[in-house]
Design brief:
This protein has helices at 2-14, 27-56, 148-154; strands at 62-64, 68-73, 76-85, 91-106, 109-116, 123-126, 130-137, 157-166, 171-179, 184-186, 188-190, 194-196, 202-204, 212-214. The protein is of the alpha+beta class and 215 residues long.
Amino acid sequence: GRFADAFFFSVQTLATIGYGRITPYGMLPNLIATAEALVGLLGVSLATGILFARFSRPTARILFSRQAVIAPYQGGQALMFRIVNGRNNELTQVEATVAIAYWDTRDGRRTRRFEQLALERQQVMLFPLHWVVVHPIIESSPLWDWDESTAHTLDPEILIVLTAHDETFAQTVTARSSYKPSELVWSARFSDMFETAPKGQVVTNVSKLHDIERV
């Protein structure tokens, strides 16, 4: 019973409730009550700050296509993947950075190489609908002489980092994703996501984000 009284007295002191059923008597109990009251105030302030910082921090909900494709592009080929905004908030200045990591053997040593991929368009000013990110496979591209068997041998991973400005919070948000060889589809392209609504406006059918067609 004494332990329960002491425990609940501490709870009341930490929470600054002070029902008055038990009061500290003497120097040592008052010092303990003072220390617990200070710890209680600091604890509540710290917990409030942590929760506010955690839940007020903006996060992006960018939806990536499940697969990336190697599609026909301007008489050649290009690596493509598709993204849409999964929220109703406005994103501006959306910028994509794409790199590739793969195994390379040089002088008998097998090392992991990282190279950034040049994009057809690295940034879009507004992001109201969807964006197909395109890396043209030209002679300067690391993927220039690759085929499907080469991709499985070198075990590449396409690394993607997106940054954007969230107008709701006036802060920068980021999103990340990647594609492994099993998620690369060769000789395919994405299906059209644009549709016409009953009232005539053009809309994006997000359910078709992952749809591809063989070519």
